[in-house]
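Suppose a colleague, Dr. K., hands you the sequence of a protein chain of 83 amino acids and asks what its three-dimensional shape might be. Before reaching for any lab equipment, you can write down a predicted structure in token form. Begin with the sequence itself:
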Amino acid sequence: MERPLKTVEAADKFDVKINAAGGGVKGQAEAAMLGIARALVDVNPEYRPALKAAGLLKRDPRSVERKKFGHKKARKSYQFSKR
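The predicted structure, expressed as tokens, is then:
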């Protein structure tokens, strides 16, 4: 979670407090890193090239697939019996 601050060598300049809800531990950690990186760019636009090169300004594009009609979940079906 301190990666964005260490990337721009500003770990001792800022205090960070984050409240994250929903998702898992990894998702919350990645969301916190993205939020910190975006806040750093707002504070000082000169940080942008370093954060972008480290891949810290990129959001994870994956999302939950929707449940389909006639299925238990997105892809899982009910048990099929021929007879």
